Structures are given as C-alpha cells and as structure tokens.
Amino acid sequence: MSRFKVVATAVSCGVLGAVVAISLTSYASWSRAISDEQMLLQIFSERAMRNVEISLDQGRSAISSLDNWTGVRCSSDHIAFMQRVTINTRAIEEVRYRDGVTQCSSWGDSFSSGEDPEVDGALGGGFELALRAESHIKGVDPITLLRRGSYGVIINTGRLSDVILNQQLKLAIFYQGRMVSGLRIEDAAPWSDVISQGRQHDESNLYAVTQRNEWTAVVAEPMTSLGTSFNRELLRALPTSLIIGLLIGALVMTFMLRRRSPFAELQTAIRKREFVVHYQPIVALDSGDCVGAEALVRWIRPDGSMVAPDKFIPLAEDTGLILPITDQVIQGVVDDLESVLANNPSLHIAINLCADDIKTGRFIGVIESALHGGLIKNEQIWLEATERGFIDITSATGSLKKAQMLGFNIAIDDFGTGYSSLQHLQSLPVNVLKIDKAFVDTIGITSASSSVITHIIAMAKTLNLEIVAEGVETEAQAAYLKAQGVEYAQGWFYSKALPAGEFALFMQQKSAPFRPDCGGA
Ligand code: C2E
Ligand code: CA
Ligand code: CA
Description:
Layout: H1 3-66, H2 76-88, E1 92-98, E2 103-105, E3 121-124, E4 127-133, E5 143-148, E6 151-156, E7 170-175, E8 178-183, H3 189-197, E9 205-212, E10 215-222, H4 223-260, H5 262-271, E11 275-284, E12 290-300, E13 306-307, H6 313-319, H7 322-343, E14 348-352, H8 355-360, H9 362-371, E15 381-385, H10 393-405, E16 409-415, H11 422-425, E17 432-435, H12 437-440, H13 447-462, E18 466-469, H14 475-483, E19 488-489, E20 498-499, H15 500-510
Parallel strand pairs: 12-14, 14-15, 15-16, 16-17, 17-18, 18-19
Antiparallel strand pairs: 1-2, 1-6, 3-4, 4-5, 5-6, 7-8, 7-10, 9-10, 11-12, 11-19, 11-20, 12-13
Domain EAL: 259-511
Main location: membrane
Subcellular location: Cell membrane
C-alpha cells in the first residue's frame, strides 16, 4: 500500500471515527432525552391516577358519612348536613338524596333531576358510577355521579384530570376505555390504540400510561417539544464526544501510520528480533585461506522473505533505529560464532558500525558486555567505520582510539568513496583499509582508473595499514590485487555472505592450520 493510500485510509478512519462518535452521541442523547422524558411523564400519569383515586375515595367516604344520618330525610337539617359534607369534601360538588318517597340535594329540597343517569360501572362495595352524565343544571359540563343506596355524590368530571402538568403536556383519563376527563385534549380516541398496543410513542407523541382496575391515565408529550431536551442532552455530551471522536481518529491514524510506515515496521522487527547475521568470508590472497568474515545483517520477515540491508539500513541510520540493530548484530555474532572463534583464534569477524556509534563510542560498552567472560578475544573483532562516522573527527578519533586500546581492530570501510579528509587518515586510529568495490571493478578495465587503486594501495602501505579489497568477483582481480601486495580479499569470487552454519563449514575447508599471525592487523 502506498504512503498516500495509507494516509488517505487513516484520515478516512479518523473522520469516520469522529462521525461515528458524534452519531453515537446523538443517538445516546436522543435515547436519553426520551427516557428522561418518559420517566417524567410516568410520574405525571401516576400522579393523575392517584388524583382519580383520591377523588373517588373522597366520594366514597362522603357517602359513608351521609349514611350516618338518622334524622328526617330531606328536612332542613338533613339538607344542611348534606351541604356540610359537600363543603368539607373537596372532590364533590353536590350531594343528592333519593328514596322511593322523597328526594332532595345539598342545593335544597326543590331539586329535581328526573331519572338518575344510567350506570356505567360498579366500583365494588355497592358503589355505582355514572360518567359524563347530564347535570340537572342546564349549561354545565357533564357530571360524574357516584352512588350507593339513596345517596349520590356529584364529582366535577374536570376534577378527575385536575393535576398540575407542564405546559406542553396533555392528559386523558379513561374509564373502561372511554375518555371521561382530559386536560388540554378534546378527543383522545387515537390514544386508545396506544393504550391497547402498549406503545410508548408514535410519530406525534411520547406517552406514559398508568392503569388501575378499569381506569387509565395517559399523559402525552408532543415529539416537537422533545427537541429541547434532546438539544440540552446533545449540547452537554457533544464536546466530550467530539474530543473522543477526534482522539479515536488520531489514534487510528497514528496506529495505522505507525503500523504501515517503514519506520513502524522496522520498530516491530527490532522488537521481534527479526534480524539474523550472515557472514561473508574474507580470504588471504596469498594462501587462499579464510581469515575471517564480515558480519552483514539480514532482515527475515515473518513470511520468510529476506530484506537486504541497503533497503533498511539508511532508514535505520536516519531514525536512530540502527543502534538496537547494531546491538542485535553484535549479540548475533557472539551467539553464532563464539565457539568457532574460540577454536580459531586467528579468525576475525568484522562488524559494521554506524556513524552515531563512532561519534559517541556507545558500541564499546555493548561489545564488551556481549563478549564479557566469553571465549572471544577483543582482537578477533574488527570494527568497520565509514567516512560518515568521521564528520566529528575529534569524537570519532577518541572513541576509535579507546576501542583500539582495548584490542579491537579498526577498519576504514568503503575507502575512496567520497572520503573528504584523507589528510586525517594519518591521525586516525586505523589498522585496516577496505578498498571499495567501485575501485576493484576498474581493475583491468582502464589503466587510468586502475591507477587510483594503485595509489590507494600505495598510500595504505605507507601508513602501514593492512588492506582488504571488497567486491572481488574475478580471478583476474584477485591476481592483480595479490600482485599489488594486497593482503585480503572479499567478494563473490570467493563466496557470498553465508548463514552462520554454512560459514563455519566454508571456513573449515578454506582455513589454514592455526598460525599466530594469521588474521591479525
Ligand atoms: P558494505 O559494508 O560495503 O558490505 C559489503 C556489501 O557488498 C555487502 O552487501 C556484500 O554482500 C556486498 N558484496 C560483497 N562482495 C560482493 C561482490 O563480489 N559483488 C557484489 N556485487 N557485491 C558484493 P550487503 O550485505 O547487501 O550490505 C550492504 C551494506 O549494508 C553494507 O555495505 C553496509 O554498509 C550495510 N550493512 C550491512 N550489514 C550491516 C550492519 O550490520 N550494520 C551496519 N551499520 N551496516 C550494515
Ligand atoms: Ca562493511
Ligand atoms: Ca564496504
């Protein structure tokens, strides 16, 4: 996947993360607004139902106390008694008395209601109920009559829905499915469906229903007024969710970028120790014996494929990841070849140092602790330094000198490729000079270029440095170098870099019996 695609995908994921978080917040705010309102409506509907029960209870106890009258019926005392009961009972407007002989009401003895209204239901305990009955007084609202025996009490139907509700709410009281009283509603017929289907909302309202016996109280809130609650909830939750969304987005982006970027892949490879070391033999030109090898790192991907160092070393050097890689190479050399090196004291292994290590000298501690107490002698380790490590010549000289004093051999790598401070070569603590393949390639091709390699060889000899020619691919090159007095060669003419086991075999076949001076710098 290209970097652009990775970034594009990551940005999309980030935006998607934010959108999802905001959508979830909106949904949660909406659900929260609904459930908060639903709870509130439920409280109101319970309260409305309680109001119905209180009104009926008051009617019932009024009738029970009226039954205590033992005096003359419809006498002025009886009427005064009925008036007292009416006044003392909040829910009732009037008391009526009617037996087979006489009839009167708290209004007086002249009351004439005609027939008693038709009964709609029985409440138990001998009480009967007539709802929305005509009053004997013309022009007033329908009445609710509660009756037992000769007494009846008239409850103002409006009182059944007389509860304090928020402005936008509506209330309907049903008895046996018929609306008997309502607040801010004329016709609650559509609500019957809501009650029968047990729904909590339809497209126009949110409902709360309380049912007791044959009574039902329904409180409704128009969906339009829910917007305020929703906006309030959304406003409260939006900043947090925006931050969460952005964080998710940023995390996804960072994760994806880090995961997909070569840097992240290299980091993972280091953590998982996916590096192995291969060894390219170095041979003595005069005898053809193997005197050592250069340790060359390889990255083995989880799928088994191998990545060459020039694909990741530059990035590792730019990002500082070269340091842990160097550490793994050093440890790899010790793990792979400790016994081989112990059994062949003249054998050396050359390890490539990065510029940063050459400047700081950090590598010394790493190598010492890797070798510590082991069988490998410091003299068997060559340290290859390129010109990039000599930018800060003073610190480089200091750390290489220190390494040299500890017995390590120092080789100048890729010599001749852009080395700008040849004059410093004399002062640098160096034992070996590695001629770059670019010069070896010119051998036998042009005499002019060949003279450059001749000069390099001459200069190395003047400085008393041993020489390793790199990238030797032909017998002619080998013969030329040998004739020029170059001591060692490395290249595909002899062998490519080999895994540790194969290198040990190669070495056995191509090494001379132990000679104390072999391989020394
Ligand atoms: P280098 O240090 O100059 O290593 C020599 C490179 O030349 C190696 O490539 C080797 O395989 C290649 N080579 C050797 N003989 C021949 C030959 O006859 N013909 C051709 N065409 N090539 C030959 P490799 O292993 O791919 O390493 C490339 C570079 O990666 C190395 O150049 C070195 O700069 C860096 N490198 C490798 N391993 C390490 C390491 O452990 N640490 C550091 N810092 N750099 C490393
Ligand atoms: Ca090298
Ligand atoms: Ca080199």
